[in-house]
Each structure stands twice: as C-alpha cells, then as structure tokens.
Amino acid sequence: MVASDFETPHARVDRMEAEGLVSASQAEMLRSSLRGETRTASQQARARGLPGTFLLVAGAVGVSALTTFFVAFSGDAPPEIQNVAEQLNEPGGYGAMNKSLSTILAIALLLVLPLIIWVWLHNSLVGREEKVFEAWADTQSTLQRRADLIPALVETVTRYLGHERETLEGVTAARSASGAEIERVLEALIEANQKSGEALQGLSREALQDEALLARLFAAQSGLSRGITSVLATAEAYPELKSGDQFLELQAQLEGTENRINVARIRFNEAVADYNAAMRRLPGSLVASVGGFQRKAYFRSEEEARDAPELAFD
Amino acid sequence: MRPNWHSTSSGASLKGAAIVGVCLVGLLIAAFLAFANFDFSAALKGRLDASQMVEDSAALLSDEERRHLGLVHELLRDDYAIDYRVVTAPSIADINRFAVERFEALLPGEAGGGGMLLVIDPVTNLVRLEIGYALEGQFPDAFIAYIEQRQMVPFFQANRIADGILAASELVVTRAKRAKAGSGTLGEIWLEGSGGGGATSRARIDEGQDPVTWQGSNVFQPGAMPGVTLAAYFKAMAARNGDPGLPLYSVETKKMLQNWVMTPAQMDGLVAAYRNCQAEPAIFDAMQRLAVLRYPPLERACAPFFFVREGGGWLLDLTMMQRAIRFGRTNAWHFERSINHPYKFAFADWRFDAKGFPQP
After folding, report:
1. Cα separation of B81 and B76, whole Å?
2. Residues 39-68, chain A: which have Cβ within 8 Å of B?
3. Min Cα separation B12/chain A (Å)
4. How far is A24 from chain B (nearest CA, A)?
5. Which positions 172-201 of A are in contact with B (Cβ < 8 Å)?
6. Could you list the pLDDT tens digit for every one of the 360 residues in chain B?
7. B348: exposed, middle or buried (Cβ count in 10 Å: 0-12, 13-18, 19+)
8. Which residue in A63, A146, A245, A270 has the most chain B C-beta atoms within 10 A of its own C-beta, making it the best mutation to test that interface?
9. Of A57, A89, A95, which is closest to B31 when you measure between CB atoms?
10. B129 bridge partner residues
C-alpha cells in the first residue's frame, strides 16, 4: 500500500497498524497525540473591549469640534459695534463671553480626558492580552503540527529498516546493533510523543496563568524534541536513508517545525512580557485590577525561569 | 476713530481657547490613530533599489555579482511580488534566530509576508532561506531544503557563491510562475512577517565536489537515431546520473562537463520541463553529420537539442547548445543572435524576432 499525499495522520497510523509497521499499543500511543477537537486559547478568548468605545471617542470628538466651531464663529459678527471703551477689561481680566467658553472647554477636558485615558488603557490591556492568546494559538498550532509529523517519521524509518533486513543477505553484527538502537530510539520517540500530546490537549485559557503547568508542558515538548533529534542522529548510520529525497523532505519538515516552535515560543514570551509589564505599570495596574486582568505565565523551562533576571516594571 | 472689534484680553483668551480646542482635537486624532495601529514607517517607506537587495558583510560576492543578483531579484519582485533579499554575514551565533530578526528588520509589515531572505555564513558554513508567511504554501520547508541541498550547495562546494544563489533563484521563479498560473496569486498576501518557515543547510563552501563513482553509466548508450539518444539522456537525468563521461555526450561536451556543476535539481528540472514536450521528426544536415530535434515554436520552454554523429552514433552536442541557446525571463528559449552556430539549417523555415525568439 502506498501512502497518499493527502493522507491524514490518523489514516496513516491506521494503515501503519494494518501493515504491521507499528504494534497496536504503539498505534494507540501515536493516535493519542494527534490533532483533536480542542479549542485554542484565542478561540476561547472573550471580547473584553469596553462597549461603545468608538461611540465614546466619536462623541468626544464631536463635542470638541462643536466647541471649537463655536469659539471660531461666535465672535465674528456681533449684532452691533461694541463700545470698546466700555467693554475693555482690566489688564489680566477676561472677556465675559470667552470666559464661559473657556470654562466649558475646561470642563469638557476634565470630564472627557480621564475617560478617554481609562478607555485607552483598558483597551490597550485587552489588545496586549489578545496578542498573548494569538501567540499561544500559534505555539499550540506548531506543537500540534510537529506531533502530526511523528507518525510519518516512524513509518519512514521503520519501512527502511524492514527494507534493509529484506535486501541485505548477511546483516553484520554491527548493523544489527545499529538497527536495535534505532528501534529503541523510535520507541522512546513514540512515548515522548504520547506524553507531549497528553500535555498539549485540553489546555484551557486559564492554563496561561499557571506557570507550573506551562513548565510541565515545556518539559514534555522538550522531551519530544530530544526524541526527534535522537532519531535523526541515529539515522546518520544509514547513508541511504539519510540521502533519500523522502527522508530529506521529512527532516526538513521536522526541523522547520522545530524552528517555528522556537519562533512562536519567543514571540509568545515577548507578548507575555509586554502584557505583564503593562499590567504592573501605573496607572495600568489600576485598570487591570478593576478589569479583572490576570498575569500570564511564560512558556519556558524551570531552569530558564530560575535564571531569568528579575524585571522591575514599576 | 477706527472701531476696535476686540478687546486685548478677550482676544488672548479667545486665542487660548482655540489652542486648547485644537490640542483636544489633535489628542483625539492621535488616540484614533493609536486605536487603528497606524503604521507611520510603512507609510513613509519607499521602494528599494536593486543594489540594496544584497547585503554582503562577509564579502563573498564581487560588486558585479551583487549588482546582477539585485537586478535578478528586482525582476522577481516586479513579476511575482516576491521580495527576495540576500544577506551574508560571518560568525552568526544562531542562524535561525538571526534570519527571523533580520527578516523583521528588512521586510517589515505586509512586504515581509511575501518576502524571502537568504542568509549565508561562511564561518559556521551554514545557509538559511527564510520564507514569509504568505509564501509558505508555495514554498514549503521541504522544497526550500531541496533548493538548498540539491541546487545551491553543489555550486557553493565549487566556491561559486553567486552562481549558487542564482541557480536557486531559478527554481524560485519556476515555482512562482507555476503558482501564479495556477491560482492567480502567490498566497495569503495580507499575512505579515515570517514565522520561522524555510530551511537551514550546511553551505559546504569550497569543499569541492563529492567524489562520485558513477555506476551504470554504460547503460545509457547513443542510438542510431537522435531520438533514441535523447530518450536515453532523459533516462540518465531521471536517474540523476551526472557523469560527465556519459556515452551519450560528444567529445567536446565531455570536455566541457568536466568542470561543470550539474546539480540533482537541474537534472530533475530538465526531466520535468520536457515531460510534456512533443518533438518533431529529426532534421539532418546535408552531410548527415549534424541533427536537430526541435519542438513546435509554441512550446516555448522546450528548447531544441543538437546532435553530432561521432563513432557511428548520434551524440548530444551540449557545448553548442550551451553557447547558442538562452532562456528569457519567462523561461522561454531563444537563440543568442551573436553566435553563429552550425545548426541553423534546421530552422530555415522558422521566423525569429530581433531578440532571437522563435515566432509561431
């Protein structure tokens, strides 16, 4: 049976099991890490922007524009020529009409400006939090993408080993040991993939507030990365396997996904740092406490967390 | 006495009120722009010229090569909206991270989505081609690794850096052309930046060609007719047999190919390019010493093949083909008008334009 270009990871695992490339338990472990129906954090994110923000700002602009219009045209066409001598104010005084205008403007500024600042700070926090969710969705997506590639890697290597056993008449002791080693590494990879899949699935938005949970997920993902590296390194002993276009393609996809995970993780941690800093700064911290914003956890190892410098945001 | 319409103090107050009003409006406009994430730098950014498309900090390229690369990539940008930059730099600590950061710096905003960045580090001996989000569909990681390892690196091994970059650009053009023909667009053009797509490979600069002992070259023998020889040649290419001493080549061709870089991707590309080409019957010269297999003029990507009779069989004269035939911007072939080759007899019934392109 030949793998189709459009074969889904689930169908691949079913076929691998039917062909005897993996045992029933290995197939079950591989299935458990495949893409499920979990909702991403960004899908779960609720809209937190203040209602009517646009109307509020538009209203403020309207008030301001009307006031300016009034100021600009109110003094232009007095009904009759003023007697300046009578109307002249004392030095340092204010014209009666313009004094009232200034008062209106001052009140408008005093009322509208703090409101605008509050709305701006709130929506700025919402925007930053959304970026965190978005970055996390990217991270989850790349982690799942890697998990979906594992069955293909297992199949390619297992199929090659089977092919080598069939074609090499006298398998040397060294070759046999090498074969046993790669099988052991594959077994470890399947286990790591299962752990990684379990840690990844069912993560809710609240998980982003749990530093320990994200550290455990990070550890599971690191285990999977090490598993992939071990398989690729062990495959060095098989030049024919390594130089084949199919393996080159798979290796490129895996390495590309590893790089995407790193990029997504860096961007997620940057988004978290930006959001956490904005939340702790004054007056943002006031808005955050009233708005129910919570600090987000970084996606990093416990060692990285220990070594991370203490940041003084305030 | 001329009437005074305004008192001094009320005038100052009016002016002050107007200033406050203008400030308030300005503040609100600024708030609007902040809400809308208005990108001032993008608005001010102008179009880059060709010489700025290549940054050669590692001094791997001559001025002429840099200029030529810039011009080729400018055409890529004009024809397919792909902004392809090249950066060489020595001793990069982490080429993957460097590529992402440099990508963001050189190709900010939506330009980055349809961007590509080639990074070459001669010290760590690594090369990375970073791909913008919008191009990931047409240029998946596996294809980028293929471009690097099966096309670019063989030239780097011969220390021909610019040729390697250009050879890789040819594959990019071929893929972009196919994508454009298929869907009309190259991808999700609104996507910005890069998410780490692409591939990193060992650059192997100046390591020399891998010692290869070609097996089974004798399987590919010339035929009593040019068509038989050509069929054997396509089979050799499909098997990626880059042996310069293939029995299918003329003596001159074998000499030329001794110093030739023939990459696996070139061989794959040749087979793919001629898969749907239907050759006309062979045309021979009066002495029955030279022959041409040509394709209908409308099949613009299918260049003719030249044969010379040597030792009783028809052998490929790639030397003359290499001198006389050129491929244009759209991958259509044409004759180099300045070359006076002996195979013109086979095209006496065709018309050519001023640039040497055959006219239907």
Report:
1. 7
2. 53, 57, 60-61, 64-65, 67-68
3. 9
4. 30
5. none
6. 344 444 444 555 556 666 666 656 665 555 554 444 444 444 444 455 666 789 999 999 999 999 999 999 988 888 888 999 999 999 999 999 999 999 999 988 766 678 999 999 999 999 999 999 889 888 999 999 999 999 999 999 999 999 999 999 999 998 888 887 775 445 554 556 788 899 999 999 999 888 777 888 889 999 999 999 999 999 999 999 999 999 999 999 999 998 889 999 999 999 998 998 999 999 999 999 999 999 999 888 899 999 999 988 999 999 999 999 998 877 789 999 899 999 999 999 999 999 899 987
7. exposed
8. A245
9. A57
10. B118, B199
The secondary element (H helix, E strand) that includes residue A277 is: helix A245-280
Of B4, B28, B195, the CB nearest to A84: B4
A256/B197 CB distance under 8 A: yes
Partner B contacted by A38 (CB < 8 A)? no
- Check: CB of residue B159 under 8 Å from CB of residue B210: no
pTM of the model: 0.73
Which residue shows structure tokens 């870089």?
B261
Residue A296 one-letter amino acid: K
**Is B13's CB within 8 Å of A99's CB?**
yes
CB contact under 8 A, B17 and A102: yes
Q: What are the tokens at B43?
A: 């608005």
Torsion angles phi and psi, residue B260, rounded to 5? -95, 145
The tokens of B88 are what? 């060489």
Length of chain B equals 360
Interatomic CA distance for residues B94 and B128, integer angstroms:
11
**Number of helices and strands in chain A (H, E):** 12, 0
